[in-house]
Amino acid sequence: MWHGCPMPKKILLDCDPGLDDALALLLAQGDSNIELVGVTTVGGNVGLARTTRNALALREYLHFENVPVAAGAGQPLLGERRDASHVHGESGLGSTVLPEPVLAVDDRHAVDFLIETLRAAPGAIHLVATGPLTNIALALQKEPAIARWVASFTIMGGSFTRGNATPAAEFNIYADPEAARVVFDADWQVVMIGLDLTLQALATGAVVERLGRLGALAHEFILPLATFWARANQSGASTSEWDGQAVHDVCAVAHVVRPDLFSSRPARVQVETTGEFTRGMTVVDFDSASPNAIVPVMLDVAGFWAYVEHIYSIVAGQHA
Ligand code: RIB
Ligand code: CA
């Protein structure tokens, strides 16, 4: 303890930047209660080369140059690679163009980086995954002990009602169902932040208007990321009429440091891998006597945005 101030929580983020992955990185970098100890990339929203380039560019733009970035899997364990460039744009960051990164990617594969980093700090690091779970599954298969070494494991993925990639499957699970099954079948508890939760975290017109007061970083970075999809899909409605764009991945990072903003239920989650119409579905049993997951179901929406906007205002004030 630092004179009553809790030590920052160490987070290792496996991601596929990605509009909302970028906003999640901004939160992780901006909150002094978080120490970002590593970033690993996976193919997802766009291909691995682009998600990795985006992570490297974000590292320099947001000034976390001391944090290693390691590239991981570009293909799912099984089946064809799927992407979400129709949502995130061809670059993966919508219309946001960041300077080309100068610093190099770590020379270790993400899987080895995950294992080495967690082995070196057992019980100390909160692992968060906001893309397809391929790297996590490969790491579990190579070293099952990582399930014991994490302080916690949180994903943005899945849902207990509906999908977004298909009517049944959320994108991160749909992109690699076999990996998701390995992850949920491992010997740990998964905090599954699914669409049912994240679709409560909408950057509505009111949120956009408040973020717009944060100055240059908001106008050149936060708002373009938080509205890229909405602008393309809100059928010409004025900003104030927007339903808004969900900042899915921000919820996963927020849960690590502000679990008080979420109300959750234990559940057994199983991943469908063979269903003709349901491949990639997370089948969530809230009545199970053997839960393997904690599933946040309700978000304190006002509290969430108050927290996120506060952290973003701090970063905006520091941003050169
Ligand atoms: O379904 C939403 C998830 O898929 C988010 O992580 C988004 O970045 C995409 O990867
Ligand atoms: Ca993502």
Describe the structure.
- With 320 residues, this protein is an alpha/beta fold.
- The protein has a single domain, classed as Ribonucleoside hydrolase-like (Inosine-uridine Nucleoside N-ribohydrolase, Chain A).
- 38% of the residues lie in helices and 18% in strands.
- The protein has 13 helices and eleven strands.
- A nine-stranded mixed β-sheet has the order 3-2-1-4-5-6-11-9-10, sandwiched between helices.
- Strand 1, helix 1 and strand 2 form a beta-alpha-beta unit.
- Helix 5 crosses helix 8.
- It is globular and about 45 Å long.
- The relative contact order is 0.15.
- The mean pLDDT is 95.
- The protein binds alpha-D-ribofuranose and calcium ion.
